[in-house]
Amino acid sequence: MLIRFGFEIVISAPNPVPLILALSPHPSVAGRILGANKVLTEPQMPVEEFIDPFGNRRARLVPPPGRSRLWSDDVIQVDGQPDVFDWNARQHEIAHLPPETLPFLTASRYCESDVLTQQAWDLFGTTRPGWARVQAICNFVHNHLTFGYKFGRPTKTAVHAMSEATGVCRDFAHLAIALCRAMNIPARYASGYLGDIGVPPSGPGDFCAWFEVYLEDRWFTFDARYNTPRIGRVLMVRGRDAADGAMVTSFGSYTLESLRVWTDELPDDVTEAAVLDQLEHLPEAPALTLAMAGSS
Fold first, then answer.
1. Quick one: 22 and 64 in the same domain?
2. Which pLDDT score is estimated for 272?
3. What's this model's pTM, rounded to 2 decimal places?
4. Which of 33, 63, 201, 241 has the fewest beta carbons under 10 Å from its own?
5. pLDDT of residue 30
6. Rounded to an integer, what distance in angstroms lies between the CA atom of residue 241 and that of residue 116?
7. pLDDT value at position 237?
C-alpha cells in the first residue's frame, strides 16, 4: 500500500523567528519512503536536522521577516495492516520492566498520573491486568470525553480533560496515558499522520495523537479517540506527553496564515515512477493530484 502524506504551513512574522519543528517521520517508521523526506521552505533557508533525546527527528530554522511557506510531501510504502491486537498480552511487574520503560511510569507535565491514582484504581482495579486493563481504560476515555477542536488549549492536562469531559485527540491520549501509569503500566505519547484509510471520511486532514503501552516485552499502539485498530499510521514523535513532541516550538511571534495536512491512500495502479515524477515538482506546487490520477 502506498500512502501520500505531507503538510503545508504558511506563516508571517514581523522579525526573524527561530523555530524548532517536529514534523518529520520518526526514524523507527517501518516502510520505504519516496520523496525528499525533510522539511522544505520557501524562501529557501538553512534547515538543521537533529535527533532529540526521545529519538525524534527535529528541524531547526529561522524564517525571515515576512511570509514563509514550510512543507513536506512524501509517499510511504506500508503493509496495509491495522494496529496489532493481542488480547493476551501480559502486564509486567514493575521490578521486571526494562529500565528504558521506567520514565513512562511517572507523572509528567500533561499526564498527572499521581493526581489520578485513586480514581484509576476505583475505576479499573478489578479489571484483568494486561491488555484487558488497557482496553478498559481506552473504552472509558473514548466514552467519557467529547471530541471537538473548540475544546483544545495548550495548557489542558489529563486532569482537566477528566473533569471537563472534553478534548481534542491529544487530550484523549493524555488522559489514557495518565490512567495507565496510575495502574503501573508504562505509557508514552505518540503523534503523526493518520488518514481515513479503511474508515468513512471524517473531514479535513489533520495531525493525530495516540499512545503506546508496554506489555508482553514490546510497545503496542492504542488510540482512545477512535478506539479501534487503524491502518496507515505514520509516526512522527514519541515522548512522555505532548511537551516532548510539540510540532512547532517558536522563539518569537508569528501569525499562522494556513495549515494543510494530507494522508491519502494512492490507487493500486500508481507506479513508483509516477510517484517520483509528481514529487519532483513539489517546490513549485504541493498539489494533491496523484491521489486521483493513477499511473502515468
1. yes
2. 74
3. 0.91
4. 201
5. 84
6. 16
7. 97
Report the CATH number that the domain containing residue 154 is assigned in CATH: 3.10.620.30
Q: Alpha-carbon distance 172 to 165, whole Å?
A: 10
Q: How many domains does the chain have?
A: 2
The 3-state secondary structure of the chain, one letter per residue: CEEEEEEEEEEEECCCCCEEECCCCCCCCCCEEECCCCCEEECCCCCEEEECCCCCEEEEECCCCEEEEEEEEEEEECCCCECCCCCCCCCCCHHHCCHHHHHHCCCECCECCCCCHHHHHHHHCCCCCCHHHHHHHHHHHHHHCEECHHHCCCCCCHHHHHHHCEECHHHHHHHHHHHHHHCCCCEEEEEEECCCCCCCCCCCCCEEEEEEEEECCEEEEECCCCCCCCECCEEEEEECCHHHCCCEEECCCCEEEEEEEEEEECCCCCCHHHHHHHHCCCCCCCCCCHHHHCCC
Please say whether the beta carbons of 59 and 20 come within 8 A.
yes
| Residues 181 and 101 reside in one and the same domain | yes
Domain holding 20: CATH number?
A: 2.60.40.2250
Residue 5 has a pLDDT of: 94
Q: Could you give the CA distance from residue 32 to residue 23 in angstroms, rounded to a whole number?
A: 18
Structural domain boundaries, residue 150: 94-231
Minimal CA–CA distance to 119: which of 97, 141, 89?
141
pLDDT of residue 70: 97
In a domain, 288, yes or no: no
Looking at the fold, whether 6 and 108 belong to one and the same domain comes out as: no
75 lies in the same domain as 136: no
Q: What are phi and psi of 80, to 5 degrees?
A: 75, 15
Among 208, 224, 109, residue whose Cα is nearest residue 157: 109
Residues of the chain scoring pLDDT < 70 = 280-296
139 domain residue, yes or no: yes
Joined grid coordinates for residue 142: 473514548
The predicted structure's pLDDT at residue 284? 41
**Domain contains 238:** no
